[in-house]
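Inverse folding, one chain.
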């Protein structure tokens, strides 16, 4: 990345590679939920990792809606429409 300091270039590459991961989880109450999370490394000016930030959100409603849509699509396809 021409003209970008090495530490900023490293950070920009890391942010471009950032992926959202989806996993099942369990609340303290025992209720099962779906969560999405992203982990972003934090580096110093020399490019050494000095920490990470994790962003986690409850995506249960979205996953339930997607599951319902998939079931409707499967049913629709099975009926032959």
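Residues assigned per position:
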């Amino acid at each position: 990345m021409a003209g970008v300091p090495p530490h900023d270039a490293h950070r920009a590459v890391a942010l471009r590679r950032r992926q959202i991961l989806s996993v099942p989880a369990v609340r303290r109450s025992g209720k099962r939920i779906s969560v999405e999370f992203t982990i972003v490394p934090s580096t110093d000016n020399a490019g050494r990792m000095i920490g990470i930030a994790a962003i986690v959100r409850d995506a249960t409603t979205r996953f339930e809606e997607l599951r319902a849509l998939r079931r409707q699509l499967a049913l629709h396809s099975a009926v032959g429409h």
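The mean pLDDT is 81. The chain has one domain: 6-79.
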